[in-house]
Amino acid sequence: MPPRVVVMGDPSELATEFAVLAGLEPVAWVPGGLVVAPFAGGRSPDEQRTRLDAVALPWRADDGPAPPLPFPAAVGGGVYRRSPGHAPAPPGTPEVVLVDGEGFGLAEHATTGMCLDMLDGLPDGPALDAGCGSGILALAWARLGRGAVLAVDLDPHAVAQARESAWASGLDAMVTVRRAALNVLAPEEVAGRVVLVNAPRVAQDALLAVPGDPVPAAVLISGLQADDMHEVAGAWEARGLMVTRSDAVGRWHAVALGAP
Ligand SMILES: C[S@@+](CC[C@H](N)C(=O)[O-])C[C@H]1O[C@@H](n2cnc3c(N)ncnc32)[C@H](O)[C@@H]1O
């Protein structure tokens, strides 16, 4: 497979196939087609060959340059996530733009992927992205029109990246990014919100240590293995929430809890 190909089709055909095309690293829209650079985002040749074979549109080789891309693009939870160097989404496809950086959540990770897929089962409303990393969950929540988000992380590199990504996505009015440890959040920054927390056990415990035992509208927990998930979900159940959905990929578990 050449380093750059043009997948040919009219705009509606390309939009219909876009969930697959996103994984082939789109780099430019051209008349009658979408230029993709399948190897530029770091995915394996075998994976990309399989992906290209799954596209129900013709393609031809293209001799332009294949720019290196900082991370692979993808569609998850109905949102196209891309770098500034990727081509934009077709009209009607929600997208977020993540700038390069050190925050977790740029590459495809099972824990982030499960969270994105489980957003649609949560109630609309203001959210707290607790341990936001790159900002991917906060940006997806805002882009999908679910509500405003407070995104918090201890890591200054993640905070800078999430903030810049909110600007790059045009979502800075909806997503507030702040550097903080989760245990020092004010109770009203947790109570009544949809809390998204894809983070290790120490961060889950820090969130549970916010004074006053605030009760969120819903909690989406990920980033834990079975034993820790049992204990952390149990702590939220003790505050009156109940498990509404669960998922697992390999050893990683994700659980959503909401009002009974
Ligand atoms: C696994 S990453 C998740 C990033 C992103 N939310 C996602 O779903 O891909 C967990 C994040 O939690 C942050 N974190 C860990 N402990 C924390 C704490 N006590 N307070 C605030 N952030 C914390 C880390 O810096 C890291 O960015």
Please, could you describe this protein's structure?
By secondary structure, the chain is an alpha/beta fold. It folds into 2 domains: about 5-95, no CATH class; about 110-260, Rossmann fold (3-Layer(aba) Sandwich). About 25% of the residues lie in helices and about 25% in strands. It has 8 helices and 14 strands. The protein has helices spanning about 10-15, 20, 45-55, 110-120, 135-145, 155-170, 200-210, 225-235, and strands at about 5-10, 25-30, 35, 60, 75, 80, 95, 125-130, 150-155, 175-180, 195-200, 220-225, 240-250, 250-260. A hairpin with a 2-residue loop joins strand 5 and strand 6 (about 80). The longest helix is centred in the middle third of the chain and has 13 residues, at about 155-170. The protein is elongated, with a radius of gyration of 19 Å.
